[in-house]
Amino acid sequence: MTRQPFFYDITLRDGNQSLKKPWNLKEKEFIFNKLVDFGVQAVETGFPAASDMDFDAVRKLAEISPENLVISALARTVERDIIKGIEAISFCKKPRLHTFIAMSPFNMKYVLNKSPQEVKKIAIESVAFSKEEILKVNKNGEIQFSVEHFGDCTENLPFVIDTLKEVVNAGATVINLPNTVERTRIKTFVDMVEQVYNALPEDIIIAVHCHNDLGMATAATVESYFAGATQLECCLNGLGERAGNTNIYEVAVALHNSGVDVPLKLNEIYELALTVADMSKVEIPEKAPLIGPEALAHRSGIHQDGAVKTKDMEKGAYRPIHPTLIGRKDDEKIGFTSQSGKTAVFEIISGAGYPITIQEAVRITPVVKEAAEKAGELPVRNMIDIYFNEVFNVKGDFRLVAFEKLAENMFNLKFFHKTEFFDINAQGNGPVDACLCALKQSGFPQKLVDYEQYALDGEISGSGALAMTVIHFEDLHGNIIIARGKDESTLKANVKAIFNGINLMNK
Ligand code: KIV
Ligand code: ZN
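# 3-methyl-2-oxobutanoic acid complex -> structure
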Protein backbone atom coordinates (compact mmCIF):
# COMPACT_ATOMS: atom_id res chain seq x y z
CA MET A 1 0.00 0.00 0.00
CA THR A 2 1.58 3.28 -1.07
CA ARG A 3 -1.01 5.70 0.35
CA GLN A 4 0.67 7.67 3.13
CA PRO A 5 -1.38 8.20 6.30
CA PHE A 6 -2.17 11.79 7.18
CA PHE A 7 -1.76 12.35 10.91
CA TYR A 8 -4.25 14.91 12.17
CA ASP A 9 -3.44 15.61 15.78
CA ILE A 10 -6.23 16.47 18.20
CA THR A 11 -4.22 16.69 21.43
CA LEU A 12 -4.71 20.45 21.68
CA ARG A 13 -8.48 20.16 21.19
CA ASP A 14 -10.05 16.82 22.22
CA GLY A 15 -7.07 16.06 24.46
CA ASN A 16 -6.96 19.48 26.04
CA GLN A 17 -10.71 19.75 26.61
CA SER A 18 -10.57 16.60 28.74
CA LEU A 19 -7.76 17.73 31.06
CA LYS A 20 -8.52 18.59 34.67
CA LYS A 21 -6.56 21.78 34.05
CA PRO A 22 -6.60 22.65 30.36
CA TRP A 23 -3.38 24.11 29.01
CA ASN A 24 -2.80 27.85 28.79
CA LEU A 25 -1.42 29.51 25.71
CA LYS A 26 2.21 28.98 26.69
CA GLU A 27 1.65 25.31 27.34
CA LYS A 28 -0.30 24.85 24.12
CA GLU A 29 2.51 26.52 22.23
CA PHE A 30 5.03 24.17 23.80
CA ILE A 31 3.06 21.05 22.80
CA PHE A 32 2.37 22.53 19.38
CA ASN A 33 6.10 22.89 18.70
CA LYS A 34 6.63 19.30 19.80
CA LEU A 35 3.93 18.17 17.37
CA VAL A 36 5.50 20.10 14.52
CA ASP A 37 8.83 18.53 15.29
CA PHE A 38 7.26 15.06 15.55
CA GLY A 39 5.98 15.47 12.01
CA VAL A 40 2.17 15.49 12.18
CA GLN A 41 0.62 16.95 9.05
CA ALA A 42 -2.29 18.76 10.72
CA VAL A 43 -3.10 20.12 14.16
CA GLU A 44 -6.57 20.84 15.46
CA THR A 45 -5.58 23.70 17.70
CA GLY A 46 -8.80 24.31 19.61
CA PHE A 47 -12.40 25.46 19.64
CA PRO A 48 -12.17 29.26 19.27
CA ALA A 49 -15.81 29.92 20.13
CA ALA A 50 -15.43 28.10 23.47
CA SER A 51 -13.52 30.87 25.26
CA ASP A 52 -11.29 33.88 24.69
CA MET A 53 -8.38 31.79 25.90
CA ASP A 54 -9.05 29.17 23.23
CA PHE A 55 -9.53 31.83 20.56
CA ASP A 56 -6.22 33.50 21.45
CA ALA A 57 -4.40 30.17 21.52
CA VAL A 58 -5.73 29.07 18.12
CA ARG A 59 -4.88 32.45 16.63
CA LYS A 60 -1.35 32.46 18.06
CA LEU A 61 -0.65 28.90 16.83
CA ALA A 62 -1.98 29.81 13.39
CA GLU A 63 0.42 32.75 13.31
CA ILE A 64 3.50 30.70 14.19
CA SER A 65 2.62 27.60 12.21
CA PRO A 66 4.96 26.34 9.48
CA GLU A 67 3.72 26.85 5.93
CA ASN A 68 3.06 23.20 5.15
CA LEU A 69 1.06 22.44 8.28
CA VAL A 70 -2.74 22.37 8.22
CA ILE A 71 -4.16 24.35 11.12
CA SER A 72 -7.68 23.43 12.03
CA ALA A 73 -10.25 24.94 14.37
CA LEU A 74 -13.43 23.27 15.57
CA ALA A 75 -16.83 24.89 15.24
CA ARG A 76 -20.40 23.71 15.79
CA THR A 77 -22.71 24.13 12.83
CA VAL A 78 -23.64 27.62 13.98
CA GLU A 79 -22.66 30.88 12.32
CA ARG A 80 -20.99 32.41 15.35
CA ASP A 81 -18.72 29.42 15.89
CA ILE A 82 -17.81 29.28 12.21
CA ILE A 83 -16.97 32.97 12.00
CA LYS A 84 -14.88 32.85 15.19
CA GLY A 85 -13.12 29.72 14.02
CA ILE A 86 -12.22 31.16 10.64
CA GLU A 87 -11.07 34.41 12.17
CA ALA A 88 -8.71 32.55 14.50
CA ILE A 89 -7.06 30.47 11.77
CA SER A 90 -7.05 33.10 9.05
CA PHE A 91 -3.36 33.91 9.65
CA CYS A 92 -1.91 30.60 8.58
CA LYS A 93 -1.13 29.32 5.10
CA LYS A 94 -3.32 26.21 5.32
CA PRO A 95 -6.45 26.96 7.36
CA ARG A 96 -9.15 24.36 7.84
CA LEU A 97 -12.51 24.92 9.48
CA HIS A 98 -13.86 21.78 11.08
CA THR A 99 -17.58 21.74 11.65
CA PHE A 100 -19.71 18.88 12.92
CA ILE A 101 -23.19 17.72 13.82
CA ALA A 102 -24.51 14.46 15.23
CA MET A 103 -26.40 12.17 12.86
CA SER A 104 -27.13 9.06 14.88
CA PRO A 105 -30.88 8.45 15.33
CA PHE A 106 -30.42 8.47 19.10
CA ASN A 107 -28.59 11.80 19.24
CA MET A 108 -30.75 13.56 16.68
CA LYS A 109 -33.84 12.58 18.69
CA TYR A 110 -32.73 12.92 22.32
CA VAL A 111 -29.89 15.43 22.25
CA LEU A 112 -30.46 17.69 19.26
CA ASN A 113 -34.23 17.33 19.26
CA LYS A 114 -34.24 17.59 15.50
CA SER A 115 -35.52 15.50 12.64
CA PRO A 116 -33.02 13.92 10.22
CA GLN A 117 -34.13 16.35 7.51
CA GLU A 118 -33.44 19.32 9.76
CA VAL A 119 -29.99 17.96 10.60
CA LYS A 120 -29.24 17.35 6.95
CA LYS A 121 -30.20 20.91 6.07
CA ILE A 122 -28.06 22.34 8.86
CA ALA A 123 -25.09 20.24 7.79
CA ILE A 124 -25.28 21.31 4.15
CA GLU A 125 -25.92 24.98 4.87
CA SER A 126 -23.16 25.18 7.48
CA VAL A 127 -20.61 23.65 5.16
CA ALA A 128 -21.66 25.99 2.34
CA PHE A 129 -21.43 28.98 4.66
CA SER A 130 -18.06 27.86 6.06
CA LYS A 131 -16.64 27.39 2.60
CA GLU A 132 -17.79 30.81 1.47
CA GLU A 133 -16.31 32.45 4.58
CA ILE A 134 -12.98 30.66 4.52
CA LEU A 135 -12.41 31.44 0.84
CA LYS A 136 -12.77 35.11 1.71
CA VAL A 137 -9.64 34.90 3.89
CA ASN A 138 -7.62 32.22 2.12
CA LYS A 139 -8.06 30.65 -1.29
CA ASN A 140 -6.53 27.42 0.04
CA GLY A 141 -8.96 27.24 2.95
CA GLU A 142 -10.61 23.85 3.47
CA ILE A 143 -13.72 22.56 5.19
CA GLN A 144 -13.80 19.37 7.20
CA PHE A 145 -17.16 17.98 8.15
CA SER A 146 -17.69 15.43 10.92
CA VAL A 147 -20.65 13.13 11.44
CA GLU A 148 -20.59 13.14 15.21
CA HIS A 149 -21.62 9.69 16.55
CA PHE A 150 -20.98 8.09 13.16
CA GLY A 151 -20.32 4.80 14.99
CA ASP A 152 -23.95 4.82 16.11
CA CYS A 153 -25.31 5.28 12.58
CA THR A 154 -25.68 1.58 11.78
CA GLU A 155 -29.44 1.90 11.19
CA ASN A 156 -29.40 5.09 9.12
CA LEU A 157 -26.17 4.78 7.14
CA PRO A 158 -27.92 5.40 3.77
CA PHE A 159 -29.20 8.71 5.17
CA VAL A 160 -25.69 9.61 6.37
CA ILE A 161 -24.15 8.78 3.01
CA ASP A 162 -26.78 10.75 1.19
CA THR A 163 -26.16 13.76 3.44
CA LEU A 164 -22.41 13.47 3.02
CA LYS A 165 -22.73 13.56 -0.77
CA GLU A 166 -24.51 16.88 -0.45
CA VAL A 167 -22.05 18.13 2.16
CA VAL A 168 -19.28 17.40 -0.32
CA ASN A 169 -21.19 19.26 -3.03
CA ALA A 170 -21.46 22.18 -0.61
CA GLY A 171 -17.68 22.37 -0.31
CA ALA A 172 -16.33 19.92 2.27
CA THR A 173 -13.19 18.12 1.13
CA VAL A 174 -12.52 16.14 4.28
CA ILE A 175 -15.20 13.87 5.75
CA ASN A 176 -14.54 12.74 9.27
CA LEU A 177 -16.25 9.64 10.66
CA PRO A 178 -15.93 9.60 14.45
CA ASN A 179 -16.55 6.68 16.71
CA THR A 180 -17.61 9.28 19.24
CA VAL A 181 -18.47 6.58 21.76
CA GLU A 182 -16.94 3.17 21.22
CA ARG A 183 -19.73 0.70 22.00
CA THR A 184 -19.55 -2.37 19.81
CA ARG A 185 -17.46 -4.32 17.30
CA ILE A 186 -14.66 -2.69 15.42
CA LYS A 187 -15.55 -4.62 12.29
CA THR A 188 -18.98 -3.00 12.17
CA PHE A 189 -17.40 0.45 12.37
CA VAL A 190 -14.71 -0.30 9.80
CA ASP A 191 -17.27 -1.74 7.36
CA MET A 192 -19.26 1.48 7.63
CA VAL A 193 -16.13 3.55 7.00
CA GLU A 194 -15.51 1.47 3.89
CA GLN A 195 -19.04 2.04 2.65
CA VAL A 196 -18.67 5.81 2.98
CA TYR A 197 -15.27 5.68 1.31
CA ASN A 198 -16.75 3.79 -1.65
CA ALA A 199 -19.74 6.12 -1.93
CA LEU A 200 -17.87 9.45 -2.04
CA PRO A 201 -15.73 10.90 -4.85
CA GLU A 202 -12.14 9.68 -4.89
CA ASP A 203 -10.60 13.06 -4.14
CA ILE A 204 -12.49 13.36 -0.84
CA ILE A 205 -10.33 12.57 2.13
CA ILE A 206 -11.89 10.17 4.60
CA ALA A 207 -10.90 10.66 8.23
CA VAL A 208 -11.55 8.61 11.35
CA HIS A 209 -11.65 9.88 14.91
CA CYS A 210 -11.97 7.07 17.41
CA HIS A 211 -12.58 7.23 21.11
CA ASN A 212 -11.25 4.46 23.27
CA ASP A 213 -14.21 3.58 25.49
CA LEU A 214 -13.70 -0.16 25.03
CA GLY A 215 -9.95 0.00 24.50
CA MET A 216 -10.11 -0.65 20.74
CA ALA A 217 -9.48 2.81 19.29
CA THR A 218 -6.09 1.88 17.92
CA ALA A 219 -7.51 -1.19 16.18
CA ALA A 220 -10.41 0.84 14.79
CA THR A 221 -8.08 3.49 13.42
CA VAL A 222 -5.53 1.10 11.95
CA GLU A 223 -8.17 -1.05 10.27
CA SER A 224 -10.01 2.04 9.00
CA TYR A 225 -6.81 3.10 7.30
CA PHE A 226 -6.76 -0.20 5.42
CA ALA A 227 -10.45 0.31 4.58
CA GLY A 228 -9.81 3.69 2.94
CA ALA A 229 -9.38 6.33 5.64
CA THR A 230 -6.32 8.46 5.00
CA GLN A 231 -6.63 11.03 7.76
CA LEU A 232 -6.12 9.50 11.18
CA GLU A 233 -7.16 11.64 14.12
CA CYS A 234 -5.08 10.83 17.16
CA CYS A 235 -3.86 12.24 20.44
CA LEU A 236 -0.46 12.19 22.10
CA ASN A 237 -0.52 9.69 24.97
CA GLY A 238 -4.08 8.74 23.99
CA LEU A 239 -5.46 11.80 25.78
CA GLY A 240 -9.05 12.82 25.09
CA GLU A 241 -12.56 12.68 26.45
CA ARG A 242 -13.34 9.80 28.88
CA ALA A 243 -11.03 6.87 28.07
CA GLY A 244 -9.30 9.04 25.52
CA ASN A 245 -8.80 9.18 21.79
CA THR A 246 -6.69 6.95 19.62
CA ASN A 247 -3.11 6.91 20.81
CA ILE A 248 -0.92 8.25 18.03
CA TYR A 249 2.13 6.18 19.01
CA GLU A 250 0.25 2.90 18.82
CA VAL A 251 -1.21 3.71 15.42
CA ALA A 252 2.12 4.90 14.07
CA VAL A 253 3.98 1.80 15.23
CA ALA A 254 1.23 -0.61 14.14
CA LEU A 255 1.26 0.91 10.66
CA HIS A 256 5.06 0.94 10.57
CA ASN A 257 5.11 -2.74 11.56
CA SER A 258 2.59 -3.40 8.79
CA GLY A 259 4.90 -1.95 6.16
CA VAL A 260 3.25 1.46 5.83
CA ASP A 261 5.42 4.53 5.34
CA VAL A 262 4.74 6.57 8.50
CA PRO A 263 5.86 10.19 8.16
CA LEU A 264 6.52 10.71 11.89
CA LYS A 265 9.78 10.75 13.83
CA LEU A 266 9.13 7.51 15.63
CA ASN A 267 12.33 7.80 17.63
CA GLU A 268 10.89 10.83 19.44
CA ILE A 269 7.90 8.92 20.79
CA TYR A 270 9.25 7.96 24.18
CA GLU A 271 10.57 11.40 25.14
CA LEU A 272 7.40 13.00 23.84
CA ALA A 273 5.24 10.66 25.88
CA LEU A 274 7.12 11.49 29.09
CA THR A 275 6.87 15.21 28.38
CA VAL A 276 3.13 15.02 27.68
CA ALA A 277 2.52 12.94 30.81
CA ASP A 278 4.33 15.55 32.82
CA MET A 279 2.51 18.48 31.26
CA SER A 280 -0.95 16.92 31.31
CA LYS A 281 -0.57 15.40 34.79
CA VAL A 282 -2.03 12.25 33.27
CA GLU A 283 0.35 9.49 34.25
CA ILE A 284 1.34 6.81 31.79
CA PRO A 285 -0.22 3.58 33.06
CA GLU A 286 2.30 0.90 34.02
CA LYS A 287 1.03 -1.44 31.35
CA ALA A 288 0.51 1.15 28.58
CA PRO A 289 1.59 -0.35 25.25
CA LEU A 290 5.02 0.82 24.04
CA ILE A 291 5.51 3.65 26.54
CA GLY A 292 4.43 2.14 29.87
CA PRO A 293 7.15 1.56 32.46
CA GLU A 294 6.26 -2.14 32.36
CA ALA A 295 5.86 -2.42 28.59
CA LEU A 296 9.30 -3.99 28.23
CA ALA A 297 9.45 -5.95 31.49
CA HIS A 298 9.79 -9.72 31.58
CA ARG A 299 9.26 -11.77 34.71
CA SER A 300 8.53 -15.33 33.66
CA GLY A 301 11.53 -17.57 33.12
CA ILE A 302 10.41 -18.58 29.61
CA HIS A 303 9.91 -14.99 28.50
CA GLN A 304 13.19 -13.91 30.09
CA ASP A 305 15.04 -16.64 28.26
CA GLY A 306 13.53 -15.65 24.90
CA ALA A 307 14.05 -11.96 25.58
CA VAL A 308 17.72 -12.39 26.43
CA LYS A 309 18.40 -14.66 23.44
CA THR A 310 16.95 -12.06 21.06
CA LYS A 311 18.05 -8.95 22.93
CA ASP A 312 20.21 -7.50 20.18
CA MET A 313 17.96 -8.51 17.31
CA GLU A 314 15.56 -6.12 15.64
CA LYS A 315 12.70 -8.54 16.17
CA GLY A 316 12.44 -9.75 19.75
CA ALA A 317 10.82 -12.95 20.99
CA TYR A 318 8.62 -11.06 23.44
CA ARG A 319 8.34 -7.47 22.25
CA PRO A 320 6.59 -5.80 19.30
CA ILE A 321 9.48 -3.51 18.36
CA HIS A 322 13.07 -2.84 19.21
CA PRO A 323 12.89 -0.21 21.97
CA THR A 324 15.20 2.13 20.08
CA LEU A 325 12.57 2.47 17.33
CA ILE A 326 10.65 4.77 19.68
CA GLY A 327 13.77 6.19 21.31
CA ARG A 328 13.49 4.07 24.45
CA LYS A 329 16.89 3.63 25.92
CA ASP A 330 15.91 1.64 28.98
CA ASP A 331 16.27 -1.83 27.58
CA GLU A 332 14.00 -4.78 28.22
CA LYS A 333 13.72 -5.02 31.97
CA ILE A 334 14.27 -8.38 33.63
CA GLY A 335 12.73 -8.57 37.09
CA PHE A 336 13.19 -11.52 39.40
CA THR A 337 10.11 -13.07 41.01
CA SER A 338 9.11 -16.60 41.99
CA GLN A 339 8.21 -17.06 38.29
CA SER A 340 11.71 -16.27 37.05
CA GLY A 341 14.72 -18.45 36.33
CA LYS A 342 18.48 -18.73 35.93
CA THR A 343 18.62 -16.41 32.92
CA ALA A 344 17.24 -13.62 35.07
CA VAL A 345 19.74 -14.31 37.85
CA PHE A 346 22.59 -14.22 35.38
CA GLU A 347 21.34 -11.11 33.54
CA ILE A 348 20.55 -9.11 36.66
CA ILE A 349 23.76 -9.88 38.51
CA SER A 350 26.07 -9.58 35.53
CA GLY A 351 24.12 -6.49 34.42
CA ALA A 352 24.91 -4.91 37.78
CA GLY A 353 28.61 -5.42 37.05
CA TYR A 354 29.32 -8.56 39.08
CA PRO A 355 31.25 -11.53 37.75
CA ILE A 356 28.87 -14.47 37.62
CA THR A 357 28.86 -17.54 35.43
CA ILE A 358 25.80 -19.40 34.15
CA GLN A 359 26.88 -22.31 36.34
CA GLU A 360 26.79 -20.07 39.41
CA ALA A 361 23.47 -18.60 38.31
CA VAL A 362 21.98 -22.11 38.04
CA ARG A 363 23.29 -22.92 41.47
CA ILE A 364 21.96 -19.89 43.28
CA THR A 365 18.61 -19.71 41.46
CA PRO A 366 16.73 -21.91 44.01
CA VAL A 367 17.95 -19.66 46.85
CA VAL A 368 16.95 -16.48 45.02
CA LYS A 369 13.60 -18.05 44.11
CA GLU A 370 12.90 -18.95 47.70
CA ALA A 371 13.57 -15.37 48.77
CA ALA A 372 11.31 -14.09 45.97
CA GLU A 373 8.50 -16.43 46.94
CA LYS A 374 8.29 -14.56 50.23
CA ALA A 375 9.16 -11.04 49.13
CA GLY A 376 7.80 -10.74 45.55
CA GLU A 377 10.07 -9.07 43.02
CA LEU A 378 13.53 -8.92 44.55
CA PRO A 379 15.48 -5.67 44.51
CA VAL A 380 18.82 -6.06 42.72
CA ARG A 381 20.66 -5.33 45.98
CA ASN A 382 19.05 -8.37 47.65
CA MET A 383 20.03 -10.58 44.73
CA ILE A 384 23.60 -9.37 44.97
CA ASP A 385 23.63 -10.12 48.70
CA ILE A 386 22.47 -13.66 47.96
CA TYR A 387 25.07 -13.98 45.24
CA PHE A 388 27.84 -12.88 47.62
CA ASN A 389 26.62 -15.23 50.29
CA GLU A 390 26.19 -18.23 48.05
CA VAL A 391 29.25 -17.75 45.88
CA PHE A 392 31.82 -16.39 48.30
CA ASN A 393 30.72 -18.17 51.44
CA VAL A 394 29.76 -21.70 50.43
CA LYS A 395 28.64 -23.73 53.44
CA GLY A 396 29.52 -27.45 53.58
CA ASP A 397 31.53 -30.17 55.25
CA PHE A 398 34.80 -28.23 55.09
CA ARG A 399 35.38 -25.19 57.32
CA LEU A 400 38.52 -23.09 57.04
CA VAL A 401 39.91 -22.00 60.41
CA ALA A 402 43.25 -20.39 59.49
CA PHE A 403 45.93 -20.29 56.85
CA GLU A 404 49.31 -18.73 57.51
CA LYS A 405 52.65 -18.34 55.84
CA LEU A 406 55.33 -19.75 58.14
CA ALA A 407 58.38 -19.24 55.95
CA GLU A 408 59.24 -19.01 52.26
CA ASN A 409 57.14 -21.77 50.59
CA MET A 410 56.00 -23.14 53.95
CA PHE A 411 52.39 -22.70 55.10
CA ASN A 412 50.08 -23.88 57.87
CA LEU A 413 46.43 -24.82 57.25
CA LYS A 414 43.89 -25.38 59.99
CA PHE A 415 40.43 -26.63 59.08
CA PHE A 416 37.54 -28.84 60.07
CA HIS A 417 36.10 -31.62 57.95
CA LYS A 418 32.72 -32.20 59.57
CA THR A 419 33.80 -32.51 63.24
CA GLU A 420 37.37 -33.64 62.62
CA PHE A 421 40.05 -30.97 63.10
CA PHE A 422 43.19 -30.82 60.90
CA ASP A 423 46.34 -28.78 61.58
CA ILE A 424 48.79 -29.33 58.71
CA ASN A 425 52.08 -27.75 57.67
CA ALA A 426 52.73 -28.04 53.96
CA GLN A 427 55.29 -26.85 51.47
CA GLY A 428 54.20 -25.36 48.22
CA ASN A 429 55.12 -23.15 45.37
CA GLY A 430 52.85 -20.34 46.61
CA PRO A 431 49.69 -20.41 48.77
CA VAL A 432 47.41 -22.26 46.32
CA ASP A 433 49.91 -25.03 45.81
CA ALA A 434 50.62 -25.29 49.56
CA CYS A 435 46.92 -25.36 50.49
CA LEU A 436 46.23 -28.12 47.94
CA CYS A 437 49.23 -30.06 49.32
CA ALA A 438 47.89 -29.72 52.87
CA LEU A 439 44.47 -30.97 51.75
CA LYS A 440 46.09 -33.91 49.93
CA GLN A 441 48.09 -34.78 53.03
CA SER A 442 44.80 -34.75 54.97
CA GLY A 443 43.24 -37.21 52.53
CA PHE A 444 41.37 -34.75 50.32
CA PRO A 445 43.22 -34.47 47.00
CA GLN A 446 41.80 -31.96 44.48
CA LYS A 447 42.31 -31.50 40.76
CA LEU A 448 42.89 -27.85 39.96
CA VAL A 449 42.54 -26.98 36.26
CA ASP A 450 42.62 -23.21 36.26
CA TYR A 451 43.31 -20.31 38.55
CA GLU A 452 42.81 -16.55 38.09
CA GLN A 453 43.36 -13.57 40.30
CA TYR A 454 41.44 -10.27 40.00
CA ALA A 455 41.13 -7.02 41.88
CA LEU A 456 37.54 -6.05 42.74
CA ASP A 457 37.00 -2.34 42.99
CA GLY A 458 35.13 -0.96 45.96
CA GLU A 459 31.83 -0.65 44.14
CA ILE A 460 31.73 -4.26 43.06
CA SER A 461 33.03 -5.74 46.29
CA GLY A 462 30.50 -3.80 48.34
CA SER A 463 33.34 -2.67 50.65
CA GLY A 464 36.92 -1.52 49.99
CA ALA A 465 39.14 -2.79 47.18
CA LEU A 466 39.45 -6.57 47.42
CA ALA A 467 41.32 -9.43 45.81
CA MET A 468 39.23 -12.09 44.11
CA THR A 469 40.43 -15.56 43.21
CA VAL A 470 38.62 -17.76 40.71
CA ILE A 471 39.46 -21.44 40.80
CA HIS A 472 38.34 -24.14 38.39
CA PHE A 473 38.34 -27.65 39.83
CA GLU A 474 37.53 -30.86 38.05
CA ASP A 475 35.40 -33.18 40.15
CA LEU A 476 35.43 -36.98 40.13
CA HIS A 477 32.93 -37.07 37.25
CA GLY A 478 34.96 -34.75 35.08
CA ASN A 479 32.71 -31.70 35.74
CA ILE A 480 34.37 -28.33 35.99
CA ILE A 481 33.45 -26.49 39.19
CA ILE A 482 34.12 -22.79 39.39
CA ALA A 483 34.69 -21.33 42.84
CA ARG A 484 35.49 -17.85 44.06
CA GLY A 485 37.07 -16.33 47.12
CA LYS A 486 37.47 -12.70 48.07
CA ASP A 487 39.45 -11.03 50.77
CA GLU A 488 41.60 -8.01 51.46
CA SER A 489 44.57 -10.37 51.41
CA THR A 490 45.35 -12.21 48.21
CA LEU A 491 46.57 -15.17 50.19
CA LYS A 492 43.26 -15.56 52.01
CA ALA A 493 41.24 -14.99 48.83
CA ASN A 494 43.09 -17.99 47.36
CA VAL A 495 42.37 -20.31 50.24
CA LYS A 496 38.76 -19.20 50.58
CA ALA A 497 38.22 -19.97 46.88
CA ILE A 498 39.65 -23.47 47.42
CA PHE A 499 37.36 -24.14 50.41
CA ASN A 500 34.33 -22.78 48.57
CA GLY A 501 35.22 -25.10 45.70
CA ILE A 502 35.59 -28.26 47.77
CA ASN A 503 32.35 -27.54 49.58
CA LEU A 504 30.61 -27.12 46.23
CA MET A 505 32.00 -30.41 44.97
CA ASN A 506 30.89 -32.20 48.11
CA LYS A 507 27.37 -30.76 48.27
O1 KIV B 1 -15.69 12.65 19.21
C1 KIV B 1 -16.21 13.38 18.35
O2 KIV B 1 -17.16 13.02 17.68
C2 KIV B 1 -15.61 14.70 18.17
C3 KIV B 1 -16.12 15.52 17.05
C4 KIV B 1 -16.20 16.94 17.41
C5 KIV B 1 -15.25 15.29 15.87
O3 KIV B 1 -14.71 15.06 18.90
ZN1 ZN C 1 -13.79 13.35 19.94
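# post-check
Residues 14, 100, 146, 148, 176, 178, 180, 209, 211 surround 3-methyl-2-oxobutanoic acid (ligand 1) (CB under 6 Å).
The chain has 18 helices and 16 strands.
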